[in-house]
Automatic annotation (TrEMBL), chain C:
Its EC number is 3.6.3.-. GO terms for molecular function: ATP binding; ATP hydrolysis activity; L-isoleucine transmembrane transporter activity; L-phenylalanine transmembrane transporter activity; L-valine transmembrane transporter activity. Pfam families: ABC_tran (PF00005), BCA_ABC_TP_C (PF12399). The keyword Metal-binding does not apply. This is Lipopolysaccharide export system ATP-binding protein LptB. Keywords: ATP-binding, Hydrolase, Nucleotide-binding, Transport. PROSITE patterns: ABC_TRANSPORTER_2 (PS50893). InterPro entries: AAA+_ATPase, ABC_AA/LPS_Transport, ABC_transporter-like_ATP-bd, BCA_ABC_TP_C, P-loop_NTPase. One of its GO terms (cellular component) is plasma membrane. The lineage of its organism: unclassified sequences, metagenomes, ecological metagenomes. Residues 14-250 form the ABC transporter domain. The keyword Zinc does not apply.
C-alpha cells in the first residue's frame, strides 16, 4: 500500500516534471538552443503566479493563464532582442549566453523578491480525498491534469495548426520556414515565447507544491534536461512520460534510500540514459 | 604566445611573488583568492577553451580536493602535502569516472550532464560521516598567509605553463581539432574521447590542488563551501571574458573580475553576481572570442569589430 | 597474407565484400563488393541518393555496415573506430568541406601530419615541415598562413587534399571534390589527382563530372539505388546502356 501511494505521488509529481521539460524540449528541438535559463524562467513564472495570488487576490489556477501570457511576452522579447543575436553561433555560445541569463534572472529575482521561501497557498492547498484507499492530494492531481492538457494543447498546436507547421518546418530547415512567408526572427521569438509560457505554467504549479526561492532554477534546468533527453524532442506526450518516469524514480529513491539523494538520482539517470542511447538524434524528424 | 610576452609574463609573476613582503594583510588575502580563482579558470580553459566542451561541474573537483585534504589532515593527521596529493588523486579518478561515459557525448549533452554533478556530490558528502556530514570539518590552524600566497602563485604559474605547453604541443593540436570539427578530427586520426578525458583529468588535478590549498587556508570545510556552484559561474565567465583557448586570457580575465567583484562585493554581493551574469551575456554577444582576440586585433579595433561579431552570429 | 602474395599484380589495399547499410529499414547500400589495388583509381558515379557517400562513410568508419565485410590490407575493419582507421592509413575528404575554421592552412594540414598513419608524426617541427611540403604540392604554398575560413572554394579543396595527403594514407577517399568548381578548376584538380598516382595510394573518387571521371579512373563503378550495376573499364562502363539509362540519361535530358 505504501508502494502504491509512493507510485501515485511519483506519477502526479512526474506530470509536473514533464510540463517543466516541455518548453525546454520545444526550444531545443526547434531552435537548437539548450536553454540553461529554463529553470530560472520556471522560477519567474512561479513568482508571477505568487504575486497575482497574494497581491491580486486571484485564484492561482485562474492566475496560471495570465502568468503564461506574461511569460510568453518575456520569452518573446528575450529571443527577439537577445538570443536571435547569437542563434547562429556555436552551441557553446548559446549555452553560455543562456547560462549568463540564468545568473541574471536568479539575482534579479533575489533583489526583487528577496531570498525568502514563498509558497502559493490557496485555501484548498491541503485538501485531499481518498480513492481505493490511497490519498490523492487535490492540488497535485490538478497540476497533473493541467500538465496533460497543456501537452495536448502543444501537440494540437504543432500538428494541427498553420503556426505549428511553420514551427516544425523551421526545426527542419530555416529556408523552408521562409517559404511559409513567416519572418524567422518572429517565428523563433514565438517558439521561445511558447516554451517560456509553458515554463511559467510549470512554475505556478510548482509554487503550489514546493517552496519558491530565487535559486531553484539550476536544479530545475538540470531536471528538465534529463527529462527532455529521456522523452525525446519530438512528441509532447513522450516528454510527459519522461517526467513521470523521473517522478517515480525520485519518489522511490526518497522512500528506499533517502530524500536528500534525489539530485544524485537525476544525475545517475541522465548518465545512464545518455550512455545507453548516445547515438539517438534528438532533433525532431 | 610569443617569446617577449612570455618573458614579460614571467617577470610579472616574479613581481607578484614579492607581494607578501610589500602588501598589507588584506591585499595578501585578496591575492590568494584571486590567484586560486585564476587557477580554477585556467584549469577550466584546458577542456573548455581548447576542446569547446563546457563543463559546469568543475566545482566538484575543487570540492574533492578540499575534502581530500581536509579528511587526510583531520581524520588521519597526515601532513598537508600528502592531503593535497590525496585530494588530487581522488579528483582525477572522479574526472576519469565521470569523463569516460559523458565525454563520449557531443556538445550540450556533456555540458548539462555536468550541471547535475555538483548537486549530486553535495548530497553525497552531506551524508558522509567521514566528511563530517552536514557539519563539515575543521582543519588545524596555520597562520601563514605568505606561504598560502606563494603556493597559490606557484600553482597558477604551473597551470599556466601547462596550458602554454598544450597550446604548442601535438596534444593541444588534437584538442583544438576536436573543438573546430570533431568529425573531421576523428577521420584524421584524433582519438577524441581519449583527448577530452585527458584534458578533463588535467583540469581536475589543478582544480583539486587549488581546493586543497583553500581548505587549509580557510581551516574549515563544509558541503556548501566545498561544492559551491557559483565557482563554476566564475570559472566560465573568467575564461569567456578573457579568451577561451588562450594562455593569458583566462588569467587576465579572472584578475579583472576578481577586482571588480572585490570592489562590488564590499557594497552588495547580489549586485556583483548580477554583474557577472550581465558580463557573460554581453561578452557572448559582442566579443565571443574573448578579450585576447580584442587585444590581438587592437590596431584596427573599431566599433565595426563588435558589429561584425553580431552579424556573423545573428539570425 | 599468403593469399595476396600468391596473386600476381599489385597489392589489394581495400576490399568490400557484400556490404549493406540500412537506415530504419531503407536500404542505402545493398550488397556492394569491390576492391582497389595500390596505385589504382576507382571512380564511383551514380545519381544523387545512390549511396555513394554512405559507402565512403562505411569505409572511413562513420557507419558500420549491417552486413558484409570490409577488409583493409587483408584485415577485417568493420568495427574499427574512425580514428584508428586513420592510423591504419585511410584518409578521406568530406563532401561538405570540413576545414578547421579557426586554424591557418598550415595548422590544418599539420593536424593531418600529426595524427595520420601510425599515429602520425610525433614532433611538431617535423609535422609542420611535412605540412608545408604538402601545401606546396597542392599549390597552396603561398597561403600557408591564411586562416582556413578565408580560403575560397578551389583553395579549400586543395586544403582538403593537403590535409588528407599529410596523413600519409594508403587509401584516399575523395567525396565529390570537384563539386562547385568551374571547368578550369576541375582540370586543375584532375591534374592534382593524377600527380598523386605513383605514390602507392589506392584512391576512390566519387564524382558527378563524367569527363573528369573518364580521364582519371582506371576503373569505374556505378551505383544505382544502392546497388552496383556496373564495374569495369571506364569507356565500356560509360557506354553501357543500363548506366546511361540510370544515370547519364537523366543528366542529359
Amino acid at each position: 500500500m505504501v508502494l502504491a501511494q509512493i507510485l501515485l505521488n511519483g506519477i502526479l509529481l512526474g506530470g509536473l516534471y514533464g510540463l517543466m521539460a516541455l518548453g525546454m524540449a520545444l526550444v531545443w528541438g526547434v531552435l537548437n538552443i539548450v536553454n540553461l535559463s529554463h529553470g530560472a524562467l520556471i522560477m519567474l513564472g512561479g513568482y508571477v503566479v505568487y504575486y497575482l495570488f497574494t497581491i491580486g487576490g486571484i485564484d492561482p489556477f485562474v492566475a496560471l493563464p495570465i502568468a503564461m501570457l506574461v511569460m510568453f511576452a518575456v520569452g518573446f522579447l528575450l529571443q527577439y532582442y537577445l538570443l536571435n543575436l547569437v542563434v547562429r553561433s556555436k552551441m557553446l555560445n548559446t549555452l553560455l549566453i543562456t547560462f549568463g541569463l540564468d545568473v541574471v534572472l536568479t539575482y534579479l529575482a533575489q533583489l526583487t523578491f528577496s531570498a525568502d521561501f514563498r509558497t502559493i497557498n490557496p485555501p484548498y492547498a491541503g485538501a485531499n480525498f481518498a480513492l481505493f484507499g490511497l490519498t490523492v492530494p487535490s492540488v497535485r492531481l490538478a497540476a497533473f491534469v493541467v500538465a496533460i492538457v497543456l501537452a495536448a494543447a502543444l501537440w494540437f498546436l504543432l500538428h494541427r495548426m498553420a503556426l505549428g507547421r511553420a514551427i516544425r518546418a523551421t526545426a527542419q530547415n530555416l529556408v523552408a520556414a521562409r517559404l511559409y512567408g513567416v519572418n524567422p526572427s518572429v517565428l523563433y521569438a514565438v517558439t521561445f515565447g511558447i516554451g517560456t509560457a509553458l515554463a511559467g505554467a510549470a512554475g505556478g504549479l510548482y509554487g503550489m507544491i514546493a517552496n519558491l526561492t530565487p535559486y531553484i532554477g539550476a536544479s530545475l534546468t538540470a531536471k528538465s534536461f534529463v527529462i527532455a533527453i529521456i522523452g525525446g524532442l519530438s512528441n509532447p506526450f513522450y516528454v510527459i512520460f519522461g517526467g513521470i518516469f523521473v517522478g517515480i524514480a525520485e519518489s522511490l529513491t526518497a522512500l528506499y534510500i533517502g530524500p536528500t539523494y534525489s539530485d544524485v538520482i537525476s544525475f545517475g539517470l541522465l548518465v545512464v540514459v545518455l550512455v545507453l542511447r548516445p547515438n539517438r538524434t534528438l532533433r525532431t524528424s | 604566445m610569443n617569446r617577449p610576452l612570455l618573458i614579460v609574463s614571467l617577470l610579472v609573476a616574479a613581481g607578484l611573488a614579492t607581494l607578501p613582503w610589500l602588501g598589507s594583510d588584506t591585499m595578501i588575502q585578496f591575492g590568494i583568492n584571486a590567484l586560486l580563482l585564476a587557477t580554477l579558470a585556467q584549469s577550466w580553459n584546458i577542456l573548455g577553451g581548447f576542446t569547446g566542451y563546457v563543463s559546469f561541474g568543475n566545482s566538484v573537483f575543487y570540492g574533492l580536493g578540499t575534502y581530500g585534504t581536509a579528511i587526510a589532515m583531520t581524520n588521519y593527521n597526515l601532513p598537508f602535502g600528502v592531503g593535497l596529493a590525496i585530494g588530487a588523486v581522488v579528483a582525477m579518478i572522479a574526472a576519469l569516472l565521470v569523463g569516460l561515459p559523458i565525454l563520449r557525448l557531443r556538445g550540450p549533452y556533456f555540458a548539462i550532464a555536468t550541471l547535475g554533478l555538483n548537486g549530486a556530490m553535495m548530497a553525497i558528502f552531506s551524508n558522509l560521516p567521514i566528511a563530517g556530514s552536514n557539519i563539515g570539518l575543521v582543519l588545524p590552524l596555520t597562520r601563514n598567509d605568505a606561504m598560502f600566497y606563494e603556493l597559490a602563485l606557484g600553482l597558477l604559474v604551473a597551470c599556466s605553463l601547462t596550458v602554454l605547453w598544450i597550446s604548442r604541443a601535438r596534444f593541444g593540436m588534437g584538442l583544438i581539432a576536436v573543438r573546430e570539427d570533431e568529425d573531421a578530427a576523428g577521420s584524421m586520426g584524433v582519438n577524441a574521447t581519449r583527448y577530452k578525458v585527458a584534458a578533463l583529468v588535467m583540469a581536475s588535478f589543478f582544480t583539486a590542488i587549488a581546493g586543497g590549498i583553500h581548505a587549509y587556508w580557510s581551516t574549515f570545510v563544509d558541503p556548501a563551501s566545498a561544492f559551491d556552484s557559483t565557482l563554476n559561474v566564475r570559472m566560465v565567465i573568467s575564461v569567456v571574458f578573457g579568451g577561451p583557448g588562450t594562455v593569458l586570457g583566462p588569467v587576465i580575465g579572472s584578475f579583472i573580475l576578481s577586482t571588480v567583484y572585490e570592489v562590488l562585493a564590499s557594497q552588495i554581493s547580489t549586485a556583483a553576481a548580477l554583474l557577472f551574469g550581465v558580463v557573460i551575456v554581453l561578452a557572448v554577444i559582442f566579443m565571443p572570442k574573448g578579450l585576447a582576440d580584442i587585444l590581438r586585433s587592437r590596431r584596427n579595433l573599431t566599433w565595426r569589430y563588435f558589429i561584425r561579431n553580431i552579424r556573423e552570429n545573428r539570425l | 597474407m599468403t593469399q595476396t602474395a600468391a596473386k600476381p599484380g599489385p597489392k589489394t589495399v581495400i576490399e568490400a565484400r557484400g556490404i549493406t547499410k540500412r537506415f530504419q529499414g531503407l536500404v542505402s547500400v545493398n550488397a556492394v563488393s569491390f576492391s582497389i589495388a595500390e596505385d589504382e583509381i576507382l571512380g564511383v558515379i551514380g545519381p544523387n541518393g545512390a549511396g555513394k557517400t554512405t559507402m565512403v562513410n562505411m569505409l572511413s568508419g562513420t557507419y558500420t555496415p549491417n552486413e558484409g565485410e570490409i577488409l583493409f590490407e587483408g584485415t577485417r575493419i568493420n568495427e574499427v573506430p574512425t580514428f584508428r582507421r586513420a592510423h591504419m592509413g585511410i584518409a578521406r575528404t568530406f563532401q561538405v568541406m570540413k576545414p578547421f575554421p579557426g586554424m591557418t592552412a598550415l595548422e590544418n594540414v599539420t593536424v593531418g601530419a600529426l595524427f595520420g598513419r601510425d599515429g602520425g608524426e610525433k614532433s611538431m617541427p617535423a609535422a609542420r615541415e611535412r605540412a608545408r611540403e604538402w601545401l606546396e604540392f597542392t599549390g597552396l604554398g603561398h597561403r600557408i598562413d591564411n586562416p582556413a575560413d578565408s580560403l575560397g572554394g578551389p583553395d579549400r579543396k586543395r586544403l582538403e587534399f593537403a590535409k588528407a595527403l599529410a596523413m600519409g594514407p594508403r587509401l584516399l577517399l575523395l567525396d565529390e571534390v570537384m563539386a562547385g568548381l568551374n571547368p578550369v578548376e576541375v582540370d586543375e584538380v584532375v591534374d592534382l589527382i593524377k600527380k598523386m598516382r605513383g605514390k602507392g595510394i589506392a584512391m576512390l573518387v566519387i564524382e558527378h563530372v563524367v569527363k573528369a571521371i573518364r580521364s582519371l579512373s582506371d576503373r569505374v563503378m556505378v551505383l544505382h539505388h544502392g546497388e552496383k550495376i556496373a564495374d569495369g573499364d571506364p569507356t565500356a562502363v560509360l557506354a553501357d546502356p543500363r548506366v546511361i539509362e540510370a544515370y547519364l540519361g537523366k543528366r542529359r535530358t
